Amino acid sequence: MYLHSLYLQDFRNYREQRVTFEAPKTIIVGPNAQGKSNLLEAVELLATLRSHRVSRDRDLVRQQAQTARIEAQIQRSYGDLDAALILRTQGRRTAWRNQETLRRQLDFLGTLNAVQFSCTDLELVRGGPETRRHWLDALVMQLEPVYAHILSQYNKVLKQRNALLRKLKRGEMQRRETAPQLAVWDAQLVAHGTRVTRRRARVLRRLAPIAQTWQQRISGAAETLTTAYQPHVVWREDEVQAVQQLFLQQLQQRAIAEQHQGRTLVGPHRDEIAFQLNDVPARTYASQGQQRTLVLALKLAELELIEQVVGDAPLLLLDDVLAELDLQRQHQLLETIQARCQTLITTTHLQTFASDWLHSAQVLAIQDGQVSPANFLANTITR
Ligand code: ATP
Ligand code: MG
Questions:
Q1: Which protein residue's CA is at the shortest distance from atom 17 of ligand 1?
Q2: How many angstroms does the Cα of residue 29 sit away from the middle of ligand 1?
């Protein structure tokens, strides 16, 4: 797929800006705090409806403005798409595709696919399980947009069930009174939760071998990566009834503890994804360089899997990560993506790039939310 152009209005530090992408590789260069990551964030929003930096739309709308607009012209293998998202400081978003306002925002998923790689992604290895669940969920949503709906249903039930358990804990309600309502929540939690855990498992099963191949390739066959899904409800038989039954049993076993703690203790909101390098946990044992390679291998695997499933290569968004990789790994990454997919790369310095790269790529300069073609040749000669 190819993103032809992007139009931003009152998004972050952009007042009004059209950006046309004229080559499969675009390098976006500028000093700190000029709007490089903001530009990639706009593309990320189109792909996932989420930003990995903030959860409130209010932060995405330019200060002093009320609404932000992100428009895109996208070429897909099945045809061209015009898409737009309107974000508001107050109120709901509007999603729009080919002259049509979409009734549900979630229907917008699948319009554009993208894999983002930024330095905060090291948190995937170093951070808590929530970071990894969030990452996996975003991937599953891109592969199967209906998952966004499933997950939001699960989270809704989880919230309501927790509210009821809190009342029990505080003594505001008695077990006897809550029992019928709790039984309803239990059944719904189990039904939605089973769908969540089975889909997560299915995607990781496909991703793991691809990630392993990349890890070996980048590390020169020295390292073996295992990516294991560790569901909180440990099921083996991949069959709806069996998983649901196990889930319900475990809920019942923890009923007293849940009442005591006032929250749901069983379910996929407690899942973990474990990365091991050469059979030891990457989080505690791997060096910084190994952790970077692992994240890079995961990102390349995501790219490949989305391409397989969707049938169209996603965009790759590289936010300031090249400088963090050593030369061999940089080279590996650039070689891999050379002809594969449209790539937007942000950087503060063009020195990081090989000259043949600079010549084949479109180079844009960003200053204070304004984008212009960069006069990079002058820079490289004077250095
Ligand atoms: P770095 O090289 O440090 O990563 P960057 O070019 O990626 O910098 P961005 O994160 O894209 O920087 O942009 C940061 C700028 O955008 C900051 O100056 C910030 O104040 C501004 N900004 C962020 N949100 C808003 C907003 N809602 N309204 C106005 N300006 C904003
Ligand atoms: Mg940035």
A1: 33
A2: 14
